[in-house]
Design brief:
The chain is mainly α. It folds into 2 domains: 1-94, no CATH class; 95-150. It contains 8 helices and 2 strands; from the N terminus they run ααααααβααβ. Strands 1-2 form a two-stranded parallel ribbon.
């Protein structure tokens, strides 16, 4: 088992269970883990472009499932150009950089503002969008910060 998977399994952010404390999955569990991880990656990529679909939780879940299903694929995913820095900061340092947090806040506000401005929504739907955006911002503000190592 590589050290990255060990740190994910020992993390304060992921509950350790009997299934997680062993080595990698095999058989049907491995296949299901890979399928769900693939779905999470697709949703994460879509979340980059869709304002109300979160990217980070899907990236972290995909990383966790790949770690359990295929450490080789997990290493490739962790070294991917698109998600490498986010995963490294989260798995090794337990947070995200201020620049990434600020970017996320600005993007959420810009996308949701554009959605509300250009959409012809009822007052009920506007209230729902504002509530969802508020929840998203609350979660973003609660994510721990790490110092830039650059």
């Amino acid at each position: 088992m590589n050290s990255t998977c060990g740190s994910i399994r020992q993390s304060n952010f992921v509950p350790v269970s009997k299934a997680v404390s062993g080595s990698t999955w095999s058989g049907m569990r491995k296949m299901c883990g890979l399928i769900v991880a693939g779905l999470c990656i697709v949703l994460a990529v879509l979340g980059i472009f869709l304002p109300l679909l979160p990217t980070t939780p899907f990236v972290l879940l995909a990383s966790y499932l790949l770690c359990l299903s295929s450490p080789t694929l997990h290493r490739r995913f962790r070294n991917s150009r698109l998600f490498s820095r986010l995963l490294t900061d989260w798995e090794d340092r337990g947070g995200i950089r201020q620049k990434d947090k600020s970017r996320a806040i600005v993007l959420v506000l810009l996308c949701s503002s554009a959605t509300l401005y250009f959409g012809n929504f009822s007052a009920t739907l506007i209230s729902i969008v504002i509530a969802l955006v508020s929840i998203g911002l609350f979660v973003i503000f609660r994510v721990p910060l790490v110092q830039d190592s650059e």
